[in-house]
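*** Residues and shapes ***
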Amino acid sequence: MSANGAVWGRVRSRLRAFPDHLAACGAEASAYGRCVQASTAPGGRLSQDLCGREFEALRSCFAAAAKKALRGST
């Protein structure tokens, strides 16, 4: 396998793991989704960083889930 093929293999495996990592953060994803939905409801106005706290919680959870999975696979 070429070096380029090895890189794409790692990328594909990470993409396949994405749904599992996201599923581990259901509460955070729901909170972020509710915030965005409320902001885009009639009369609402979505703007940058409006749901920043919820997004940061989701990002942190996702990063922790990915790290945990990465440590478990070695």
